[in-house]
Design a protein that fits this description.
By secondary structure, the protein is an alpha/beta fold. 38% of the residues lie in helices and 19% in strands.
Length: 285
C-alpha cells in the first residue's frame, strides 16, 4: 500500500489529470525492475506518467495511489498491461544499415563455409519490437540465392506481447518501407485495399515470433550463429547487463556474432566478445 506520508505531488503534476507522488513513482520503479529488469531513472517520470495514465483511464481509477495498490495487491491482473505500457518500441526497417551490410558482406559468406555440412543457420532477434529488425535480417538472407535449400530460422522475441503480435501480422503502413534499400523492396507487397504493405510469405516463413522476458529462463535448446540485441540493454543496470551478455555468449556458437545498439558497448561489461567495430562483436570464448 502507498505510504500517505510520502504522497507529496511530484513536479507539475498538481495540474495533471492523475496525481503522481514520489512514493507512487518509487513503487513503479521497483515493480518495473522486479518484473522486467528495466531501470527507470527519474528523468523518465513524465514519460511513464503519460503511458500509465492510459491504464488509469481504462481501469476507471482516479489516481496513482489506486494504481500502485492494484499492482501490489493483484499483480497478475495488470502485469501484462503494465509491461506493455512501460516498454519502448522505437524501430525501423534496416535501422543502423551498416549492421546489415556487414551481415551480407562478411557474416553470411563465412557461415556458408563454416556450416556447409549442416546447411543450418540460426539467428535470434532479442528485443524485436514490431518486427522490422527480424524481417530486415530475413530479407538479407533471402537475397542470397546460394542459400536456397538451407535451413535458416530466425527467432524474434520481445517482452511486449502487443508488439510481438504486430510483428507476426507482418503488415505496416507504407511509409515504414520508404527507407528500405532498393534491392530489398522486392520482399514487400502493396495491400490494394489500404495504404499498407505486407511482408511476403517467403520472408515470413523464416521467422517465429514469441513473447519472452530476457531475465527469465530461456526455453531455447540449441545455439545461435547470430544474435541481434540492439537498444535493449540501455534500460538495464550494469549487473543485469553483465548477466545478460554472458548468457548471450553461452548461447552463441564459437565465433558467433553479436550486434548491439549504436549507444551501447561491452566495455567493462564482459570480456567474452571481441569488437569487430561499429557495435559488432564476435564471441571470444
Amino acid at each position: 500500500m502507498v505510504n500517505p506520508s510520502r504522497t507529496a505531488v511530484v513536479g507539475d503534476h498538481e495540474a495533471r489529470e492523475f496525481p503522481m507522488s514520489i512514493a507512487n513513482f518509487e513503487i513503479i520503479k521497483r515493480i518495473a525492475m522486479e518484473w522486467t529488469g528495466i531501470s527507470l531513472s527519474d528523468h523518465k517520470r513524465n514519460m511513464i506518467y503519460g503511458r500509465l495514465s492510459r491504464r488509469l483511464r481504462a481501469l476507471g481509477l482516479s489516481d496513482f495511489n489506486q494504481y500502485c495498490n492494484l499492482l501490489e495487491a493483484s499483480p497478475a491482473a495488470e502485469k501484462t498491461e503494465f509491461i506493455n505500457s512501460i516498454t519502448t518500441n522505437l524501430t525501423a526497417f534496416f535501422r543502423e544499415i551498416h549492421h546489415f551490410e556487414y551481415l551480407a558482406r562478411t557474416v553470411i559468406p563465412n557461415l556458408m563455409r563454416a556450416n556447409a555440412a549442416s546447411r543450418k543457420i540460426r539467428i535470434w532477434s532479442a528485443g524485436c519490437s514490431t518486427g522490422e529488425e527480424p524481417y530486415s535480417i530475413a530479407m538479407v538472407f533471402k537475397s542470397f540465392s546460394a542459400l536456397k535449400g538451407w535451413d535458416v530460422k530466425i527467432l524474434a522475441t520481445d517482452l511486449d506481447s502487443n508488439v510481438v503480435a504486430k510483428g507476426a501480422g507482418a503488415v505496416y503502413p507504407i511509409d515504414r518501407a520508404e527507407g528500405v534499400p532498393d534491392k530489398y523492396r522486392q520482399f514487400f507487397k502493396r495491400d490494394k485495399t489500404s495504404n499498407n504493405v505486407q511482408i511476403k510469405d517467403s520472408v515470413r516463413e523464416l521467422i517465429r515470433f514469441r513473447q519472452l522476458n530476457l531475465l527469465h529462463e530461456w526455453p531455447m535448446r540449441g545455439s545461435f550463429d547470430i544474435i541481434f540485441c540492439r537498444n535493449v540493454v540501455i534500460y538495464f543496470d550494469l549487473p543485469t547487463q553483465k548477466k545478460l551478455f554472458n548468457r548471450y555468449a553461452d548461447m552463441l556458437v564459437d565465433n558467433g556474432h553479436l550486434f548491439i545498439g549504436h549507444s551501447e558497448n561491452l566495455y567493462k561489461v564482459t570480456d567474452r566478445f571481441n569488437s569487430m567495430g561499429r557495435t559488432i562483436y564476435q564471441k571470444a570464448y
